[in-house]
Design brief:
The complex is a heterodimer. Chain A is mainly β. Chain A is 3% helix and 49% strand. Chain A contains 1 helix and 11 strands; from the N terminus they run E-E-E-E-E-E-E-E-E-H-E-E. In chain B, strands 2, 5, 6, 10, 11 and 12 form a 6-stranded mixed β-sheet that branches. In chain B, strand 8 and strand 9 form a beta hairpin. Classes of the chains: A mainly beta, B mainly beta. Chain A binds chain B through residues 33, 35, 40-45, 48, 58, 88, 90, 92, 97-99, 102-104, 106, 108-109, and chain B through 4, 6, 31-33, 35, 42-45, 47, 50, 52, 91, 95-104.
Amino acid sequence: NAGVTQTPKFRILKIGQSMTLQCTQDMNHNYMYWYRQDPGMGLKLIYYSVGAGITDKGEVPNGYNVSRSTTEDFPLRLELAAPSQTSVYFCASSYSRVANTGELFFGEGSRLTVL
Amino acid sequence: AQTVTQSQPEMSVQEAETVTLSCTYDTSESDYYLFWYKQPPSRQMILVIRQEAYKQQNATENRFSVNFQKAAKSFSLKISDSQLGDAAMYFCAYNTDKLIFGTGTRLQVFP
């Protein structure tokens, strides 16, 4: 039961570097999401996708890009990393609109530090 | 814009006692879901309980129950017979298309 798998779990970046957080799910879920969680805060939605080839911005999309070429994979790209992007990143998926099913399945998170 | 407010940054409870975590939300929608998620130190997000807005009956899952007041836009979580393993961050969340989280309440459980 792999569920939602994120890699890497930890990463340190220098200011201006770029990297991709990988996310894959094996539940054949149409909907996938990227959240960030800053220390002591709740989760904020970065980007989401309702199916392969379709992506949309969430609350805090600036500085990030996503793609959804397959149902299984939803990578998050950080271009020109900044200290403000230091956070824990969560990928999640759901079978259909969360309004219908009500549940997200989360990965274990990726802790990113930008120095 | 939809917002979710958790006004208690920290709460504590004695083992075996009952504790209630508060949550309010703001929306103009009539049909939506509300959730409580638990985040232990492992960072994993675990669904505790969910409530569908059109249902009058309060949801219950074992020791966890909610008090859903739709008119007041209030959605509190009651944990009965608290256990040491209940210690975690608890997030209230609201959704129509996307899940919007509150800032969380850190629950400490003392033996």
